[in-house]
Amino acid sequence: MEMYPFLIVFLYLLESVASENLIQTINDTIGAENYTYYRVSGVGRLRLELTSMYGDADLYVSHITLSPTFNEYELKSTTCGMDVVEIPAFLTRPIGVAVYGYPVKRNETEYSLSVYFVSKYDDSDYSSLDSMYTLRDSDSKNDVNAGQATPNGQQSYQDKEEEEISVSETLWTILLTILKVVFEVLL
Length: 187
Hints:
Layout: H1 4-19, E1 20-31, E2 35-40, E3 46-54, E4 56-62, E5 75-77, E6 83-87, E7 95-102, E8 108-118, H2 126-133, H3 157-186
Antiparallel strand pairs: 1-8, 2-7, 3-6, 3-8, 4-5, 4-7
Helix pairs in contact: 1-3
């Protein structure tokens, strides 16, 4: 019976591993009031995690400019702890990422920036999914939405790829749910 909490933690970790993949981690230092710029070209939904080892670094993200600042950005996180920014899949790539060294008592900030691919959908993806399956008034009647057949009756390659990803996510969710139920019944 003492193994039950371990199994819950194990299943939770299994579910999080199945839905997120670490792409890259960068460790660096930055001077106070300076920027370090990165370009993210990866497709899909991404999560950036910026951890300040000492000092305080802030995170600014833009799909419009590759050199975002604290005056020009679309997404940001400026906490004193871990900074996290979720980049929706529908933002155009490449994306500019700026790490800003906030001036504190030290002249340098040491940080770690990690990029994760997130395969699970959540509420923030709703607007992109809605736009994929809804014609807007400004769209012409001849436009074809993603997920519908093209004029020759064939689905596009991108539609098929998105459908395969959706099926694999659904299968993972079902498998993890079955495993949870089995372990709860056994214990």
